[in-house]
């Protein structure tokens, strides 16, 4: 009975998530397209630009949501296959920031990558996905115009990558659940989101043999940190 209740709860959470996270961007895209088709000739360049930006943002949100659903399905089925290769964390950070440049608008981003950081054997695209989810999460909850900090350093046999924001501190009793599927804490009640992103981050990082956690080292803000183990084979030959 308990398993059935948990299954029903998960099913309801999934339906609620899909309903909200699909309908919201679809509604904005439909509204903007309808306006352009109906009154396109009467809009000036600035007004058209605003409507086109609305369509672009809605399409981006749909794409990210579908990507998260697909990754969650692959994680759940055990079919997630890593295409590991030697990766430079700085390159992954750069690609992720270019991918979500619009999302980060209004938030200065500081990147602190330790010099001489060793390469890691990882799936470039999946680690990029992790960073994008963490950065989107930071931008969603961070205070307006506040800085978001990305840092990376080597410790013993791993590379640690962190994304820190200045959003409301996640209560200590929520931190152990923040990476659960569909979990939405107190700070999430007034924000959109499926509750999938952080769960997917954990699944991807654990598939690489690493860990992910959140803490609040500052008076205000949160720091999400994941580890990627260094290869036992050392570094590739130059």
CATH architecture of the largest domain: 2-Layer Sandwich
Q: Per DSSP, what share of the residues sits in E-state strands of 2 or more residues?
A: 15-25%
The CATH topology of the largest domain comes to: Heat Shock Protein 90
- For the largest sheet, list the strands in their spatial order: 2-4-5-7-6
Q: How many distinct domains?
A: 2
Indicate the low-confidence ranges by residue numbers: none
Q: Briefly note the structural class of the backbone.
A: alpha+beta
Indicate the radius of gyration in whole angstroms: 19 Å
Percentage of residues assigned to helices: 40-55%
* Count of helix runs: 6
Largest sheet: 5 strands, mixed
What attributes characterize this protein structure?
238 residues, alpha+beta, Helix Hairpins, Heat Shock Protein 90, 2 domains, 5-stranded mixed beta sheet, two-stranded antiparallel ribbon, 6 helices, 48% helix
């Amino acid at each position: 009975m308990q398993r059935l209740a948990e299954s029903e709860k998960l099913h309801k959470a999934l339906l609620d998530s899909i309903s909200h996270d699909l309908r919201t961007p679809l509604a904005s895209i439909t509204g903007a397209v309808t306006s352009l088709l109906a009154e396109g000739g009467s809009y000036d360049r600035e007004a058209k630009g605003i409507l086109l930006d609305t369509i672009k943002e809605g399409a981006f949100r749909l794409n990210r949501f579908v990507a998260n659903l697909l990754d969650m399905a692959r994680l759940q089925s055990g079919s997630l296959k890593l295409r590991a290769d030697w990766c430079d964390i700085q390159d992954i950070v750069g690609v992720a920031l270019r991918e979500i440049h619009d999302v980060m608008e209004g938030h200065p981003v500081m990147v602190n990558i330790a010099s001489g950081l060793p390469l890691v054997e990882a799936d470039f695209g999946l680690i990029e996905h992790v960073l994008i989810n963490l950065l989107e999460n930071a931008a969603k909850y961070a205070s307006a115009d506040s800085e978001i900090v990305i840092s990376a350093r080597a410790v013993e046999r791993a590379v640690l990558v962190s994304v820190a924001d200045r959003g409301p501190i996640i209560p200590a009793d929520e931190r152990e659940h923040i990476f659960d599927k569909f979990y939405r804490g107190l700070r999430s009640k007034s924000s959109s989101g499926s509750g999938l992103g952080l769960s997917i981050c954990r699944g991807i990082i654990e598939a690489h043999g690493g860990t992910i956690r959140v803490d609040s080292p500052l008076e205000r803000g949160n720091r999400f940190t994941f580890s990627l183990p260094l290869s036992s084979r050392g570094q590739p030959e130059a």
